[in-house]
Amino acid sequence: MTGRTLTIESGLRCNNRCVHCNQPMLRAGGILLEPETADLRARIASGRDEGFDGVAFSGGEPTLRRDLPDLIAWARQAGYQRIGITTNGRMLSYRGFSERLVEAGLTGASVSLHGPSAEIHDAVTGIPGSFDQAVRGIARLHRAFGAARVRPDLSTITVLTPFTLPVLRETLCLAGSLGVTLHVVQPFILARENLGDAPRFLLSLDTIVAGIERALAGGLPHGGRIKAFNLPPCRLDHLGKQVELQEYETSTFKEFRDSVRGKTASGSTQFVRIEACAECTRPCPGMRLEHLPQAVLARAILEDIEAWGVVAGNDDVTLSCLDLLQPDALAAVLAGARRSSPRRLRVMWGGQALTSAERFVESCRASGIDEVCLLLSPPALRLPDRHVRMPGNLADIRRDLVGFRADSLPVPSLFLMARALLSDVHGLTSEGLDEILVALKEAGGNVLNLAVTDIEDPRAPPPDDSTLERVASGLLGLAAHWRSMGITPRLVRVPDPTVGGRLESILSGRIEREDWSPGLIQHRFAGPGFSWVAWSNPTWLFPGAAAVV
Fold first, then answer.
1. Phi, psi (5° rounding) for residue 376?
2. Ordered structural domains, the chain, with CATH
3. 97-104 and 130-147 helices cross at what angle (nearest 10)?
4. Is the pLDDT of residue 13 over 60?
5. Angle CA(415)–CA(330)–CA(301) in degrees, nearest 5?
6. How confident is the model at residue 397 (pLDDT cuts 50, 70, 90)?
7. Are the C-beta atoms of residues 531 and 306 closer than 8 Å to each other?
8. How confident is the model at residue 24 (pLDDT cuts 50, 70, 90)?
9. What is the CA radius of gyration of the chain?
10. What does the DSSP 8-state code read for residue 59?
11. pTM for the full model?
């Protein structure tokens, strides 16, 4: 496929429950509004204005939209040369549905196929019968393309996990028997929403490459080839023409954005360029961060800690964003941080990581870490649309507090964006917080750290003085209540003047205030750019936090 392809997210609804997917947590919030037909038509038109000549509808599951044939017809009328869908294939198995899509102008489809049998595929999708529907759907769509004399751009998609990689060849051969010759393979991709389950699904890059080599050994009997997404092409060059590399331009039109110009890329922090990338000019962002070898990841963080080292002087040191470290690498980083930090050392924890909470606390105890600050992320309506409730970690934090010992280090504390208690965007009540504070005291801690910002959303205008006074009054009342429980509230300075300062000034002197900035270690995998994956990221405490949306 050549040209520029625009992917339009059509909503979050899906009739599968794939075990590796991060979207089910987003669907569980009870509020799930989808883009209107007029919105998607406007996005189709906007894409043409921007020069895209191909469009692909994704989800969720786009075939659940009743207006999908009309959207495809509208895209054809708008002048797109290629019109595709990314689908689980189940709706395609129903009589007449595939034919309607092809008649409307569909030229291609990518259909999920995660195994060569119902036993494997259905275990991945969580839906009995989904394998049979996907297989029938692929066959029916292939026939519909043939009947319409449309040269099909038909592919399968397989997410590579410990369950699907060993049978990848069998899966590709099955797809080939259905008339498919192009097979998209993609590794399991991390996100905050699936980080807690990641140890079950994450594979090393070496393991993935070896699995693809085995699948293609001797060539596929139907002459098929794979297209590798989110894998560095240099690692697959030796497989020659059996591999089609992802080297053409695509852009994703997020379902909650207003225009193509307002789109957001996946974010450069999801990829790293290693030394071997220095002289490379290929259109490749590098290696996915989750595929960076653990020893390399740990060494890079330790280098930054040592460079930060004595710069912190007499200040307490705070270390965050260790979420992607597995147990051995985590232990090495904590031990190195302890050696480099003669003063009090605080480590942030967000409840979900590649190391379990139990192992995390054990490693902190073994390394002599003074404090573990557990960052509370309440469920929240996604900004700016407020249509989807983003999942939180309150239950995880409540559970993890049990692992601390009241008579030994590390001492637990809590960290919270104060506005979460005073906003209709967040799902946290004072009573709910009280339950966690009781668990904190039982675990031997008594400090609630609060980041206080003048604004909640960086896109919002600054509040007036009366609004700030009202927020301050509410926080002072809560602070008095916490003190009566034996909890010490502390304000943690927000360094960015564009989001904080005025409210802090009002509260200064009435709530104890600390500045973590001098000792907040800004290693290369910490800061606002890593909110996509790190639950332990105290975003507002880093410079440039206002740019995070």
1. -85, 125
2. 5-288 (3.20.20.70), 293-540 (3.20.20)
3. 40
4. yes
5. 85
6. very high
7. no
8. low
9. 25
10. S
11. 0.88
